[in-house]
Amino acid sequence: MSPLVRAVCTSGQRLATRRATRSSQRVFVGVCVLMFAASVAATLAHGASMAAMGALPMPGGWSMSTLWMPTCGRTWARAAASFIGMWIVMMAAMMLPSLMPTLLRYRDAIGSRASAQRLALLTMLVSGAYAVVWTALGVAVFALGASLAALALRWPALARSMPLAVSVVVLLAGALQFSTWKARRLACSRTTPSLPADAPSAWRYGLRIGIDCAGCCGGLTAILLVVGMTDLRLMAAVTAAITAERLAPDGALVAWASGAIAVAGAGLLLIQALSAG
Questions:
Q1: Distance separating alpha carbons of residues 206 and 138, to the nearest angstrom
Q2: Secondary structure of 57-118 as H, E, C letters
Q3: How far apart are CA 188 and CA 91, in angstroms?
Q4: Cβ(82)–Cβ(229) under 8 Å?
Q5: What does the alpha-carbon distance between residue 99 and residue 92 come to, in Å, rounded to a whole number?
Q6: With contact defined as beta carbons under 8 Å apart, do 124 and 103 qualify?
Q7: How far is the C-alpha of 209 from the C-alpha of 7, rounded, in Å?
Q8: Which residues cross the membrane (predicted)?
């Protein structure tokens, strides 16, 4: 084969590879958009059902969501399963806008070393490991929340102190947004290391970005948990803040802005708690 023919063949192969990669990326983005739409719809439906169930008035002037307790004949196991299912759907709606660019960077990094089918498989492994981290976190959140709910139902003094505790949690979460630890977590979420195009590396990378993401979003997620997981407006605001600080050119500035809002909100909650007391 002459050098000219070889060059033409090589150029044709590269062009075909680029076209296949672009097609694969379009399919991936389309799947992400569909998953996001489905998770948002499911979250809205769940929020409507929780609003219809109401909440339990508690000493101290606050109400406890039925998320944290077995109701209507449900066992604790069913309550936990319901919470974890809701948690997974809600986290998909909240985290997909910032996770998709991370997955796109990963696909770009290994795309030249993997076929379209293998690239899809590795992307699924990364996403699966990421979901495992958030699911494990959901299990821990339910265990803690259910325990606190049971104690609050048993001890009125503890229930009366909850509004004050919520204001303290929001204050600490807001302060965390200004920390160098938060800045390091943001920096980690924006980098994609050089990785082999194999399954173990994909799984480990998914676990790593899941842990980094959970740490990076920990403060804002804590605010959502203590103020109200069924508040769709707060959920939308937290989602916007998480996405903006991960994708904006100056993510630290966005984190500081959301931290300032959280600290101000903590002040208002503190005033309300002291007034109620």
A1: 17
A2: EECCCEEEEHHHCCCCCCCHHHHHHHHHHHHHHHHHHHHHHHHHHHHHHHHHHHHHHCCHHH
A3: 20
A4: no
A5: 9
A6: no
A7: 40
A8: 27-56, 76-99, 119-152, 164-184, 205-227, 253-274
Tell me the two tokens of residue 276: 């109620």
Token pair belonging to 101: 């660019």
CA angle 132, 207, 125 (to 5 degrees): 75
Residue ranges of domains in the chain: 29-276
Give the number of other CB atoms < 10 A from CB of residue 45.
11
Nearest alpha-carbon partner for 162 in 70, 269, 79: 269
pTM attached to this predicted model: 0.86
Long-range pairs, 264-268, Cβ under 8 A, ≥24: 265/170, 265/174, 265/223, 266/167, 266/168, 266/170, 266/171, 266/174, 267/167, 267/171
Please state whether 228 falls in left (phi above 0), alpha (psi between -120 and 50) or beta. Answer: left
